Amino acid sequence: MADDLHTRYMRASDAWRTHRKGCSPCGSGQDCPDGAQMYQQFADLQNDYLRLIRSRGGT
Questions:
Q1: 18 within 8 A of 47, measured Cβ to Cβ
Q2: Is 30 left (phi over 0), alpha (psi -120 to 50) or beta?
Q3: Which of 7, 13, 51, 53 makes an SS bond possible with 58, Cβ 3.0 to 4.6 Å?
Q4: What is the 3-state secondary structure (H, E, C) of the chain?
Q5: What is the pLDDT of residues 6-50, one digit of tens each?
């Protein structure tokens, strides 16, 4: 489960970074609707992954 969650978290990170590079509003810190949704998905998956790691005694 952790590996799958980590993979989804990394894919969301890659998608957000790729989008940000090509989107003027997102690149300047003013998220477009798509960028805001992508960032939220990335942040949610990151939080889920970190919560899972911590629950297993990780740092």
A1: no
A2: beta
A3: 53
A4: CHHHHHHHHHHHHHHHHHHHHHCHHHHCCCCCHHHHHHHHHHHHHHHHHHHHHHHCCCC
A5: 999 999 999 999 999 999 999 898 989 999 999 999 999 999 999
